[in-house]
Amino acid sequence: MASNGNPMLPANRNCYNYGQPGHISRFRPLPDRRLNGAQTFTAIVPAQPLLTVPPASNVGTAVPYYSGYNGGAGGSGLGQRVRSLEEIVGRINSKHEADEAKVKKEREDEDRKAREKEDEERRMKEKKEREDLQREMHKEMASKLDKVCEAVNAKKVGGDDEVGKLRAQVEVLTRRCYNLGGAQKSKEVDSDEVTKLRVEVEKLKPEEVARLRKEHADVKAATDKRLATLEEVIFALQKNCEAAEANADVWRNEALRPGNKRGSVAIGHTPVSDARVRARITPVVPPCSGGRVDVQLKNIVERHKREVELLKEMRAREVKARKESEDEVDRLKNEMARLNTRRRLKGTNLRRKMDEAAVPTTKGKTVVDLVDHAMQRDVFLRAARKELRGKRKEKVIDICDKEGVEYTTLDPTTEAIAQGRADRAVGVDLDDSKGKGKEDIVVEVTDDGGDNSEPSDGRDSASS
Fold first, then answer.
1. 315 lies in a domain?
2. Would you give the end-to-end CA distance of the chain in angstroms?
3. Of 239, 279, 367, 461, which is least packed with CB atoms within 10 Å of its CB?
4. What is the pLDDT of residues 155-194, one digit of tens each?
5. Distances (CA, A) of 367 to 313, 362, 441, 447
6. Is the pTM of this model over 0.70?
7. What segments bear the compositional bias annotation Basic and acidic residues (predicted)?
8. Closest by alpha carbon to 168, among 215, 217, 204?
């Protein structure tokens, strides 16, 4: 404040309450002396009393200045208190932030452990379900394969039994024929015995052949049905494996995605922040997922392939056994036909004897109707064509080697084989007997009307 006495004195810029320079009265915690008229000392540090000096006559009175008093903050010590309070508040704030960080970390750890536990439980559940499914599939496949094996083995045993019966029957017939040939019996007894044997064989042949063919057809249909079912099951399993592999690839790619920090898979739209900030993402090439293969799925696929190969091998064995049975039946047919044609009555050219006797009678002889032979030959020809239909080149070549037919191409060769079988089955060459001046074919008819000899073409039947 300015001095009221001498205007030549320098201005007093000190605080009015304490007289110290640099202080402003409105920032002081003590009341103004001018308002209450009394001097109060409520400061933390008591202020020193003002030093008064008797004023000179011409010089103004000045209050001394203590620059270092109370740290430069005046008599109140406000700066030191502020600094103490700031330090206390800073320590409290640091402790509070540390506590909050600790609580947040503990909460994040608990959340992470809960997520890991849920993921582990889910993986265990999926693994258990997958193992149960594989176990059921394995049981089903094993039961189906056991049924197929039982059916094939039973059929094979049944086929062997039938072939054994036919062989035994052929041996019995052979012994009977030899016994009949060695015995010196009358002509009528031999004829009756041969006729009975021939009738018996003719009765047994169609029944056995039809039964075998029916059994073969049934087994083939059942096997084809089972194989078709197994192929469908295998195809479905392959599709499931492919779907599982695709799902595993999706999960793997999602887990290895650069933006996925915690490694948890989140299927769906990735949340994006609305703040306009530049995403600091380093472009990373995702690892190639083609090099990683699930070992378990690979083992399942390999096991399915082995099962398919086993089924193919079993089917090939069954086809081979059926082919052997058919060949054995054909061989037995040929053997029975040879046995039937081997035992013939010793005869001569009846036409020549009739011409010599000049007796116009037809007792015991009749002319074979060529129309009947043609119809029979047509039936045998259709059956042979049906049997040879669909055979491969290797099988046709084997048949050519057995029957003495020269192989040219597939269709003409099969036709030649069918023609030869039809001719052998009928026993008459119709092309050679039509209109070439050969003698008529006659057969001998007994009194009871039974046919007990093969057709004769004018040559001695004993020589055959």
1. no
2. 168
3. 279
4. 666 666 777 788 888 888 887 776 665 555 555 556 677 7
5. 55, 10, 6, 16
6. no
7. 428-441
8. 204
Q: Residue 463 falls within a domain, yes or no? A: no
For Cα atoms 156, 326, 316, give the angle at the middle one, nearest 5 degrees.
55
CA distances from 276 to 38, 131, 260, 261, 273 (A): 64, 49, 21, 21, 8
The token duo for 422 is: 């039809």
pLDDT at 439: 42
Query: Cα separation of 382 and 374, whole Å?
Result: 12
pLDDT in tens, 359-397: 444 444 444 456 677 778 888 888 888 888 888 888 888
Determine the Cα–Cα distance for residues 442 and 205; give it in Å rounded to an integer: 26
Beta bridge partners of 365: 444
Greatest CA span in the chain, whole angstroms? Answer: 208
Distance of alpha carbon 423 from alpha carbon 381, whole angstroms: 8
Contact between 397 and 407 (Cβ < 8 Å): yes
User: Facing residues of 445 across strands?
Assistant: 451
The rounded distance, in Å, linking the Cα atoms of 239 and 255 is 24
Domain that holds residue 61: 1-76
Q: Is residue 377 part of a domain?
A: no
**Would you say residue 166 lies in a domain?**
no
- Whether the per-residue pLDDT at 279 is higher than 60: the answer is no
Q: Tokens 């059916």 belong to which residue?
A: 151
pLDDT for 212 equals 82
Over residues 302-333, the pLDDT tens digits come to 888 888 888 888 888 888 888 888 888 888 88
Contacts of 47 (CB under 8 A, 6+ apart): 18, 41, 75
